[in-house]
Design goal:
The protein has 460 residues and is of the alpha/beta class. It contains 16 helices and 13 strands. α12 links the parallel β8 and β9. α1 runs parallel beside α6 and α6 runs antiparallel to α7. The longest helix has 33 residues.
Length: 460
């Protein structure tokens, strides 16, 4: 009798968060909850949390001595940062067994039998802080940026996204590289280390060269993306933006009837997708899905994805989607605004959509409708709601349209086809001299049609 193979157990993780001055309990709980979801997306099982209130992060190892021992109890480490160079004995947590045993008893009272092999910290760590935490806990330590980068690396699908993530990953890890096996001898040679250059310096130089190579390749891809944007420059565009897992990809599928990837995970979508609004309008309205934002998004990632986020900066309308069922959504709105401001996308008109209304009780829906009167409270699972958002998008673009009457000679019938592509043809009449069109569209589109009629070659 054959049995199906069981999935290997997920690595266990314990979270470390320091509540700094000015951070409320609700904000701290929201941040740790988000960190737990990030860890889950990365494939980790969160078995515990260690938190501490401090005015600032401890310079050496983020948390104080007592909390380090509590943290090490989850991992089997010593909870003490050894002085002097690390030794194999200390790195394995074999010294000071009395302190480790005391901490283990404390952790066992919280979560019997749990032992974590990863520590995930809700802050960005300096290289020395990460190293000291690893020596005190005896396990791998990941800060928030490292977790986000690992998730991005897993979810990148297109060549552009993979290049962007690899640049950010190398920029993050370069200053965190360590000498392996003690100090390397200095030396030189053709194609090797320069005079007085250590192995660590050589490795870092190789990373810098690799980043330069990747950026050069990315420039070519960005140039092609810019060309595509220019080609559709006459068409109205709307970009879906918002916090990660707010429902952007689900709305993209609903509004464009496309097969965009949808998954209930953080950063499930990294690649920008552009599709036409369905049912199609005349002219077509293009909808683009963008990478999600998150609090403390690594700066290198924002820089690397700047070309992808150009879709948001250059569009005519931003539809900002928010998970209204998340109590922390007001803070997520602010994070999205900050990221958009960092890429210069603050000028575009914005429509706020409080999504996932189907998860709200009537009382909460009424309160949100009162607190956010300018927002749309919708659910992508509701067909009338999808239709309502589509109508708002269409109405936005048509509000600035102008009407015009154009007389197109039969020798220039190509202009008729252009009119159907660039504007909405309200009326079309034919007589002995040609075709008379009554069109409605943007002032730019109407101006282009008139310019085509003035050109000598506007016919065949």
């Amino acid at each position: 009798m054959s049995t199906s193979p069981t999935a290997p157990p997920r690595p266990r993780a314990v979270l470390l968060g320091v509540q700094l001055s000015g951070v409320s309990d609700a904000e701290q709980e929201s941040s740790l909850g988000e960190l737990a979801r990030l860890a889950k997306t990365l494939g980790l099982e969160v078995v515990g949390r260690v938190t501490q209130r401090r005015a600032r992060l401890a310079t050496a190892a983020v948390a104080g001595e007592g909390k380090l021992r509590e943290l090490a109890a989850w991992t089997g480490g010593t909870g003490v940062v050894p002085t002097g160079p690390p030794s194999s004995k200390r790195s394995q947590g074999e010294d000071e067994p009395e302190e480790a045993a005391d901490g283990a008893a404390e952790a066992a009272a919280v979560q019997p039998g749990a032992r974590a092999s990863v520590v995930v910290v809700d802050h960005e760590l300096t290289p020395s802080q990460a190293r000291n935490l690893e020596r005190a806990t005896g396990v791998e330590v990941l800060d928030r940026s490292a977790v986000i980068l690992a998730i991005f690396q897993r979810h990148a699908r297109s060549r552009e996204a993979r290049l962007q993530v690899e640049i950010a990953r190398l920029a993050y890890w370069a200053p965190r590289m360590r000498e392996s096996g003690g100090r390397d001898r200095e030396g030189g040679g053709i194609g090797g280390r320069g005079a007085g250059e250590s192995q660590l310096e050589l490795d870092r130089r190789k990373i810098r060269d690799r980043i330069a190579e990747l950026r050069s390749e990315l420039v070519g891809i960005e140039r092609e993306a810019g060309t595509r944007r220019k080609r559709r420059g006459d068409l109205p565009t709307v970009a879906l933006v918002g916090y990660t897992n707010a429902g952007k990809s689900s709305w993209m599928r609903a509004l464009t009837a496309s097969g965009v990837h949808v998954e209930d995970k953080l950063f499930a979508t990294l690649d920008t997708t552009v599709r036409a609004l369905q049912p199609e309008t005349h002219p077509r309205i293009l909808v683009s899905d963008t990478v999600g934002f998150i609090k403390k998004l690594p700066h290198d990632l924002v820089a690397s994805f700047r070309s992808t986020l150009d879709e948001a900066r250059e569009c005519a309308l931003l539809v900002q989607l928010v998970d209204a069922s998340d109590p922390a959504f007001p803070a997520q709105i602010e994070v999205t605004r900050e990221v958009l401001a960092s890429i210069g996308a603050t000028e575009s008109p914005r429509l706020l959509v409080l999504n996932k209304a189907d998860r709200l009780d009537p009382e909460t829906r009424a309160r949100l409708a009162s607190d956010w009167p300018d927002a749309l409270l919708l659910s992508v699972k509701s067909a009338p709601d999808v239709a309502a958002l589509r109508e708002r998008i269409v109405a936005f673009f048509e509000s600035g349209h102008v009407e015009a009457e154009l007389v197109v000679p039969y020798a220039r019938q190509r202009v008729v086809a252009e009119a159907h592509a660039l504007a909405r043809v309200l009326e079309e009449r034919h007589d002995a001299t040609g075709t008379t069109l009554r069109v409605r569209g943007t002032a730019e589109a109407v101006g282009r049609l008139r310019e085509l009629l003035r050109r000598p070659d506007a016919g065949a």
